[in-house]
Design a protein that fits this description.
By secondary structure, the chain is an all-alpha fold. The protein contains three helices and no strands.
């Protein structure tokens, strides 16, 4: 018997067999996502994501802005004090670099805040989409799961 004929015979035998899948654990059946919650083994819940986004909005962003304003005022005073010296030029360069870094930080905080707020919806949509892909498969074909 050649390879091709043996392969065809094995494929035929495999398609005739009933395949059963057994999972070690099956999550309880749910009618949909759990708002504000989630399974214990998931990295974070929607509530935790919302709290983190709120912390960024109510604490990190405003406090960073206050610290930036304070530092800008102190730098401006120092530049005026050292006017005419090379130190003033150096302070201006440092202040420019500082302002760019703060702008980058504020943008990153805003991005992270928005990502945290959007993550819950994305996870839910992804889960429902995957569930929909498996819906056509009958339970009997999966061994009664």
């Amino acid at each position: 018997m050649g390879f091709d004929s043996e392969w065809e015979a094995l494929r035929g035998q495999a398609s005739d067999r009933q395949t059963n899948i057994r999972l070690n654990q099956v999550a309880p059946e749910r009618s949909g996502p759990t708002p504000g919650g989630g399974p214990a083994d998931f990295g974070s819940t929607p509530t935790e994501k919302k709290a983190a986004a709120n912390t960024i909005e109510t604490e990190l962003e405003p406090n960073t802005k206050k610290a930036t304003d304070w530092a800008d005022e102190a730098s401006e005073t120092a530049v005026k004090t050292f006017d005419g010296w090379q130190t003033a030029a150096g302070l201006k360069k440092v202040q420019s670099t500082w302002d760019q870094q703060v702008k980058t930080l504020m943008g990153r905080l805003s991005h992270e805040k928005n990502a945290l707020r959007g993550a819950t919806g994305l996870f839910t949509q992804n889960d429902l989409g995957i569930r929909g892909q498996f819906a056509p498969i009958s339970k009997s074909r999966l061994g009664g799961i």
